[in-house]
């Protein structure tokens, strides 16, 4: 019988990583010197999540999808994605600026035989004073203007820069140039893909190899959306004790739940799994079948499609992201 699942954290050492995974999220990533990312729910080949507790402990997420199919992910989700779990959830600690980068859409990724495209979103959990990020361009661009800016090393002059604070949401469709700036801790929800085209890496040198990291400037050219948009930060109502929609896309829907009182959630109308991502405070999840699970900031639970009714019991003030496939 399926129940709310938690998974062993996969830790990623990154050149720009820091200590907040340990100091704020209280996850011990020893023996890594620092940690840039944790992968919490993943079916990326070579980085598949392993169940952490309960009767299914030790099973991989991929094995569970193969075994339980629509009972785990939802009938229409299984029909669409088959045995590949469609979403990847991470926490990211940027102790330095990440590279300027872009991801391909499904069509280009398929053409280049690199799996799915990568549409994603960020929820800012903690931000140092004045921390910034990049989402998109600050004006309309042509492909030729972009190519010239990369060649001239003036690409940074064309980027839309946003100050970020806790609770901010940024939706990044495939094709949008972006980078996470120094001083940000965030949750990332994305398509199951690890395809990234690195455009510029601030001339950093890897301490181990003594080399600059590989750039993918030519691959990026046909992946980029060169349009300028009026708004890059996602606007949503921050209400207490009410589920509020923040992102609605073809790949995932994400709601923000700010609660300080008990709430009953009915997922019977959703033909999909639900991932609950605790981004502030803590809570206990109880099912009608009597299963109970506690989450704190920096932890996630995968609610199988067959588990329709939950009670969420907050430990004081808590914020949870609720994401699923439409």
TrEMBL record:
InterPro entries: Carb_Metab_Reg_Kinase/Isom (IPR051804), Man6P_isomerase_Firm_short (IPR014628), PMI_typeI_cat (IPR046457), RmlC-like_jellyroll (IPR014710), RmlC_Cupin_sf (IPR011051)
One of the protein's GO biological processes: carbohydrate metabolic process
Residues that coordinate or bind Zn(2+): 103, 120, 178
Domain Phosphomannose isomerase type I catalytic: 8-112
Catalytic residues (UniProt): 198
Superkingdom per UniProt: Bacteria
Cofactor stoichiometry and binding remark: Binds 1 zinc ion per subunit.
Pfam families to which the protein is assigned, alphabetical: PMI_typeI_cat
Single Gene Ontology MF annotation: zinc ion binding
Listed transmembrane segments: none
Keywords: Isomerase, Metal-binding, Zinc
SUPFAM superfamilies found in the cross-reference section: RmlC-like cupins (SSF51182)
Cofactor(s) named in the record: Zn(2+)
Name of the protein in its database record: Mannose-6-phosphate isomerase
Species this chain originates from: Spirosoma telluris
